[in-house]
Amino acid sequence: MDNPTEPILNANEYYVTHIKQTALYCILLVPLLIPLISHKLHLRKNPRPKGCRKLGLPPNKSNLHDEYHPKYSQPVPETDTDTPSWRIKALFAYPIKSCTGIELDVADIVPTGFTYDRQFCFAEYITPKTNANSQQPHWTVRTLRDGDLCRLALIKPEIWVPDPTAPDYSPSLDEVQSHGVMVIHYPRVPQSLICKISLALGLLPKHQSFSVPFLPKTTHSYPSAPLKVWKDFPPSYNYAIHLPPSLHHFLDPHSTRGPLSLFRANPSHPRQIFRNAPRKPDLGFQPVTGFADAYPIHLLSLSSVQHVAAKCRPEIPHLSIRRFRANMIIQGPGPFEEDGWKRIRVSDVDMYTACRTIRCRLPNVDPDTGVRHPSQPDRTLKAYRRIDRGDLTNAALGMQVVPALRECRIRVGDRIQVLETGEHCYIKMLKPGEVVEGV
Questions:
Q1: Per-position DSSP letters for 264-297, written without gaps between them
Q2: I need a labelling partner for 430 at 20 to 30 A (CA). Which of 178, 197, 203, 237 fits?
Q3: Dihedral sign, Cα of residue 336, residue 423, residue 93, residue 376
Q4: pTM
Q5: 401: nearest Cα among 198, 107, 144
Q6: Distance (Å, rounded) from C-alpha 93 to C-alpha 295?
């Protein structure tokens, strides 16, 4: 005869086993849920900036959507029509030097260039290795030129500007008093197995973010430090207090560098421009810039880049003009026609094309992947674009521009007129006592 208690025992064993399995699943899931919960809490701590709207074109729109079309490689006549054939194709501001740009339809220009262009940069604290070195410890700008910092290209800043029409707008808001907010996004680098699994399962977003004020408030406590930008040392605001540890790990995963920080240009101490720039008696004011290399605005012709791209196509099938990080991209003139421009008019604003842009290897970095090509387009450019007698070692592509007005506004579609042409000779950043032949 069967034991009448056997079904009861089997049922008990089943429930005990089921409970154990459930408990095990919970134990395994808790570490996965913790990052997700943490992220949700992070979102609550960092909501959409109050009283602001996001600057720039939406992610699904770009005036460069057809940049590879062969029609842009052919010159068109500069004609007087309602729809000018020589015009601005696209506008870009780069809030953080060497990081992703923001595409604009309208750009406001101030003495340093586009309002939101190159006002921030990343910098490394350099400590001389020997006492014999005359250099003192200092902060120095770091860019995509620095071989192991290609990841800068993947950092995506957003600019949120005060918007009086926003329902939560108030003049007393911190976001408004700081003239807006910059939200900085960067890829999440998993530092543990749990984090890797969470990313793979979609439990964690692929990017992290933090925000900083666009301008320090009047009562700010940011330390000021001289920052080495080429040969200049402008006093700049150190925003280190805002940087999360995960950003340090993203930029310097192997901890091979000195301390890294984010700096903000001090509006009271812009860098004065001389060299090829028009002089103060001609403009009525001294040309200045923020963290741009040398001049306020960089102009680039789509046809010129397509000419270079055609020569690079076997190694880089699609060479985007975004690699060259220009502010003003134009269409209409033939390849390299801008090489001889001295003065132009954009809509109703006169601008001096001060000199050619001397290229380094920075465009070798793909802005979409952060991967540096070992030789292109630098090798191609040097093969046939070493044309400026002021620097025959390096290639030239594009023009450096100084507006003739302190403040103005330009738009995509604005007409480009050439007012004056002539010879150019690039003036290098000279050492004391050094001169450029022929200048």
A1: EE-TTSPEE--TTSPPHHHHSS--EESSSSSSSE
A2: 237
A3: positive
A4: 0.87
A5: 107
A6: 14
